[in-house]
Amino acid sequence: MTDETSPVAESVVEAGDEKIVRTEPRKRPRLLRRLLIVAALGVAMVVAAGFALVMERQITLNGNIERVPGAFPEEAGRPAKTVGEAQNWLLIGSDKRPGEAGNQRADTIMIVHIPADRARLTLIGIPRDSYVRIPGHGNNKINAAYAFGGPQLLIRTVENLTKVRIDHFAALDFKGFVTMTEAIGGVDVYVAKKVYDPANKVTWPQGTVHLEGEKALLFVRQRYNLPEGDFDRIRRQQAFIGAMGRKIISRDLLTDPLKLNDFLEALTRAVSVDDGVTLSTLRDLALGLRDIRPDKVDSATIPNLGSVTVRGASVVRLDKRAGEKFFTAIRDDKLEEYFGSSGGLNDLTILP
Question: Domain Cell envelope-related transcriptional attenuator spans what residues (predicted)?
Answer without folding.
Answer: 105-248
